[in-house]
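We read letters as residues; the fold follows as tokens. A sample entry reads:
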Amino acid sequence: MKIVTDSSCDLPKNLIEKYNIDVIPLKIEIDGVDFTDGVDLSHEEFFKKMKASPTLPKTSQPSPQSFLDSFKTGVENYKEVLSIHLSSKLSATFDAANVAKEKVQGDIETFDTLSGSIGVGLQVLKASQLAAEGISKSDIVEKLREYRQQMNVVVYLETLENAVKGGRVSKPKEFVANLFNLKPVVHVDEGYVKILKTLRGKKKGLRTLIEEMEKKNIDFQDRIIGITHCDCLEDALALKDEIVEKFSPKEVLLTTMGPVIGTHAGPGGLLVCF
């Protein structure tokens, strides 16, 4: 079986290569220049360009043709294809995959993660591990539904600058937030991004990520926890150390957040998925 996903998954390159995952890249436009995520624009380059730009980057879903090519090759070489993608509530990527699916004859199934960034990635990783064990596609999809239901994604936002650039927050509101050092924490709920709480100060904001994990009262010893960051490696490493010390998870995957979610999280954004 061939596993297909999109570049919003933010999985480390070594895992993509290990499980031979086909990653369909999304598109990004910065200051009128078009880039292809992960092809001619790395995460590091994206953050530099985003910080320097007066306007918010624009992201768009892959073309149906890119899915067509992947699905045709997948069916020919593997017979079955499972295509796992960014929340349909956040992007038209899932729709593009479905358009392509209807045009290719073969055993193809699309799956909406109702998540973003490493929340997508961990579901792709789980599917890949199950496929490597010889689990059937139908059983993998059932297990993914259960995993998706249990998954939590919480994001700390260091700044509202990108929300202002994108027209989602007015400059006076940003001024007030900066004046009082307010830090929003958002979460993914049924595929949508919603405000969880707004706190004063970075320390309280980051502490909330740990508190949200504590609230769930989960035994993390058999769980993989994902962390992605927007050019704030030091904060991400500190968060990882605290998570390892407090929860003793099976593994912590730490990587950079890509353009798709990073555009809206902004510099200093930090996401934890558990």
About this structure: Confidence is low (pLDDT under 50) at residues 172-177.
